[in-house]
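TICKET: design request
STATUS: open
ATTACHED STRUCTURE:
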């Protein structure tokens, strides 16, 4: 076995488990998940068999955007614990051989960050305002916004501060965009990278990595022009070429450590722009959200897989596979709804399930069983692919999205800022069920900060732990086998004679066969190692994936 401490490429084919800390486990019963909760449940991660944890933001925050509004980049939210708890968690993860990846949110701070408070207190044109993006309003008294741009969560992207100036926030108004042309901003983030790396953090997930570098012309273009403007690397707001100068500086810091600290970019950019984020001179890896945006459909999966292996080869990085995260409808639910068809050209973020959420979970009709069956099949494909896989907490339980959260209990700013047009992401952030009973199904000794549905009881960790056919058992078996079978980062497609059946083989013979259709597919003489659903004699049923090796 490879020694992870000295292995500089541990991340290339790692399985990373995303923890959304306020919803994972609550250690003190106040209804909000915390670091003690994660420490208490660390055995779940060990038994699951993942290689690393990615901790979504745990920093002090007023939770205007689930913690992606950071008050202080170098501290822990007192509701979640202390720096000492953080160190303990990191040490405990390391003890059981897991890496710690933390979420870094550099595009914007929160409006409670000391810098933003200083900016508000300081006059127009001051150095304090130069750390953010302030502009004069239009009209004689500056009471009109500098431009008509909408924020990603709905509502305007410019907010007035009362003296004729406005600041830019591409997300919620509590998330002012930082000015990355400012040397002080740059230096401070290098400090933050070292602060956490010195504490033993192994890697960083970089939020909105394609947004940092901006070039706003004096005359701000209207949104009608901006939204359609592309021109690789030259958009005023997104994916500018200069953003890579920032990551080159970060890379120098990452490489001060042994093994070098890693990073993965959350960059919603065209596929052919991804390799620069993933290059060894930059962040080193970039999320590929193509599977997450793809319908459950064999030709789509095949295209996505082929394209992304080619892109990874171009950057020298490994590719990343994601089926669910804290921003999208969970994949069992997506796969149990009618296919999305073509992507919405106006939206980078997958919208699959949006109508269903808006209807409170009634329209269109969700086939829960089929959705889960397909999700299990898709997961076995994901875990057999070359590269690394990012799992989202709760997917190992086969959880569906929670619909029908009452409006007065919703938390996502997208819901409020869009006037309810976007239901938002609360449905995948509902606290996890650990036990079949208890006030919050074992999430904590008290309540849960988002309402949990009754069906959580049957899917609790303790229930699935006893059931060899559970989704939890499948994930555990798959991760154990994956470790044994792991091979070089390539695959060969096998001819299946059917468009709805995909099969690929890794260089050591590890083979994955997936039947996306409904007609059974005859098995070969190969030894079956794992199956996402029970086999039917010597046939592979529909919506089922198997792992095999030559007999
Ligand atoms: C990223 C995060 C998302 C957050 C947004 C703004 O897309 O994944 O949860 O709302 O950035 O920080
Ligand atoms: Ca708590």
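STATUS: resolved
RESOLUTION: sequence designed for all positions
ATTACHED SEQUENCE:
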């Amino acid at each position: 076995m490879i020694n992870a401490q000295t292995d500089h490429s541990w991340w290339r084919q790692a399985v990373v488990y995303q923890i959304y800390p306020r919803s994972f486990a609550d250690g003190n019963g106040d209804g909000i998940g915390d670091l003690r909760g994660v420490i208490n449940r660390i055995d779940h991660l060990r038994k699951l068999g993942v290689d690393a944890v990615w901790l979504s933001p745990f920093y002090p925050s007023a939770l205007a955007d689930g913690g992606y509004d950071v008050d202080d980049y170098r501290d822990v939210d007192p509701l979640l614990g202390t720096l000492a708890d953080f160190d303990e968690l990191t040490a405990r993860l390391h003890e059981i051989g897991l890496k710690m990846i933390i979420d870094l949110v550099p595009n914007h701070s929160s409006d409670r960050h000391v810098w933003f408070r200083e900016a508000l207190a300081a006059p127009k044109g001051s150095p304090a305002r130069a750390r953010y993006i302030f502009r004069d309003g239009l009209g004689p008294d500056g009471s009109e916004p500098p431009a008509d741009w909408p924020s990603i969560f709905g509502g305007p992207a410019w907010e007035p501060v009362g003296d004729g100036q406005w600041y830019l926030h591409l997300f919620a108004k509590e998330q002012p965009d930082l000015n990355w042309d400012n040397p002080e901003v740059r230096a401070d983030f290098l400090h933050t990278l070292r602060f956490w790396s010195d504490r033993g953090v192994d890697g960083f997930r970089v939020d909105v990595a394609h947004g940092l570098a901006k070039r706003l012309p004096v005359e701000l273009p209207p949104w009608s022009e901006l939204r359609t403007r592309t021109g690789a690397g030259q958009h005023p707001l997104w994916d500018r070429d200069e953003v890579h100068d920032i990551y080159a500086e970060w890379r120098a810091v990452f490489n001060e450590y042994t093994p070098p600290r890693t990073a993965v970019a959350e960059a919603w950019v065209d596929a052919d722009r991804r390799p620069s984020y993933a290059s060894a001179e930059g962040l080193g890896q970039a999320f590929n959200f193509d599977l997450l945006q793809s319908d459950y459909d064999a030709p789509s999966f095949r295209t996505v897989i082929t394209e992304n292996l080619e892109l990874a080869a171009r950057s020298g990085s490994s590719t990343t596979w994601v089926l669910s995260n804290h921003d999208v409808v969970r994949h069992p639910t997506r796969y149990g709804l009618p296919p999305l068809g073509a992507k919405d050209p106006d939206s980078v973020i997958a919208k699959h399930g949006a109508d269903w959420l808006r209807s409170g979970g009634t329209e269109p009709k969700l086939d829960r069983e089929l959705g889960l069956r397909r999700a299990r099949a898709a997961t076995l494909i994901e875990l057999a692919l070359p590269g690394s896989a990012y799992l989202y907490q709760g997917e190992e339980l086969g959880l569906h999205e929670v619909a029908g959260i009452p409006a007065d209990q919703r938390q996502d700013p997208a819901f409020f800022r869009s006037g309810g047009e976007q239901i938002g992401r609360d449905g995948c952030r509902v606290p996890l069920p650990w036990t079949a009973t208890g006030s919050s199904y074992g999430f904590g000794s008290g309540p849960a900060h988002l309402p949990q549905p009754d069906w959580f009881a049957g899917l609790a960790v303790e229930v699935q732990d006893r059931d060899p056919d559970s989704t939890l058992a499948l994930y555990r078996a798959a991760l154990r086998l994956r470790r044994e079978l792991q091979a070089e980062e390539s695959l060969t497609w096998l001819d299946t004679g059917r468009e709805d059946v995909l099969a690929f083989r890794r260089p050591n013979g590890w083979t994955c066969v997936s039947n996306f259709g409904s007609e059974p597919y005859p098995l070969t003489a190969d030894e079956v190692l794992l199956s996402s659903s029970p086999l039917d004699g010597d046939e592979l049923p529909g919506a089922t994936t198997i792992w095999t090796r030559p007999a």
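CLOSING REMARK: The chain has 15 helices and 18 strands. Confidence is low (pLDDT under 50) at residues 1-5.
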